[in-house]
C-alpha cells in the first residue's frame, strides 16, 4: 500500500469518528416536546363547500350599453349594378389566392414593353402590369404610377349585385 493511500485512510477514519457518538439533541427534543403540548387534541373537520348555481352570460353578442348607438343611413349606400360582375370563366392568376392587404408596392420598372409595378407579398416580390389581377376579390390593376398602384375590385353589395371598389397600394418607402 502506498503512503498516500494509507494517510488518506487514516484521515477518513478520524473524520468519521468525529461525526458519531455525541447525543447533543437536547434542544431539539425540548422543542418537539413543547410543540406536542401545544397541538390540539382534536383536528377540526374540513368545512363543507356549498355549491352555487351556475350563471351563463347570454348578452355577449348584444351592443354594449356604454357605446353610442350607430345610425345606419341606407340612402347614401352604394348599390350594385347588374353590369358589373366577376367573370367566372376567367382563369385565375396566382396572386388572386392571397388577400390584397398583404401586398405593398416597393417600386416600378419601365422598359420598351411598358411600365411594371413591383409588389411585395405572397412570399416574394412580383412584377405586375396594368390588367393583371391580384387579391381575392377579382382585383384588376388599372393604373401604375411612380407612387402608387390603382386596383379595382369587384365585391358583392349584400343585395345580390356587385360593386366596383377602387383601392390604392401606395409606394412603401424605406423598405
TrEMBL record:
Keywords: Signal
Organism of this sequence: Pseudomonas mohnii
DNA-binding recorded as keyword: no
One Pfam family here: PilP
Domain of life: Bacteria
Protein name in UniProt: Type IV pilus assembly protein PilP
Record Gene3D superfamilies: 2.30.30.830
Keyword Phosphoprotein attributed: no
Signal peptide positions on this chain: 1-17
PROSITE patterns assigned to the protein according to its UniProt record, in alphabetical order: PROKAR_LIPOPROTEIN (PS51257)
Amino acid at each position: 500500500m502506498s503512503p498516500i493511500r494509507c494517510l488518506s485512510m487514516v484521515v477518513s477514519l478520524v473524520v468519521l469518528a468525529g461525526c458519531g457518538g455525541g447525543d447533543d439533541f437536547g434542544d431539539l427534543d425540548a422543542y418537539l416536546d413543547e410543540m406536542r403540548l401545544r397541538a390540539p387534541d382534536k383536528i377540526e373537520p374540513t368545512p363543507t363547500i356549498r355549491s352555487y348555481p351556475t350563471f351563463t352570460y347570454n348578452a355577449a353578442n348584444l351592443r354594449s350599453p356604454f357605446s353610442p348607438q350607430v345610425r345606419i343611413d341606407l340612402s347614401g349606400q352604394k348599390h350594385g349594378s347588374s353590369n358589373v360582375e366577376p367573370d367566372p370563366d376567367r382563369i385565375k392568376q396566382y396572386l388572386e389566392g392571397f388577400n390584397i392587404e398583404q401586398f405593398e408596392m416597393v417600386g416600378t420598372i419601365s422598359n420598351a414593353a411598358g411600365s411594371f409595378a413591383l409588389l411585395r407579398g405572397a412570399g416574394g416580390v412580383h412584377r405586375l402590369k396594368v390588367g393583371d389581377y391580384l387579391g381575392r376579390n377579382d382585383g384588376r390593376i388599372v393604373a401604375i404610377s411612380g407612387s402608387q398602384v390603382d386596383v379595382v375590385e369587384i365585391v358583392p353589395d349584400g343585395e345580390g349585385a356587385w360593386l366596383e371598389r377602387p383601392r390604392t397600394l401606395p409606394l412603401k418607402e424605406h423598405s
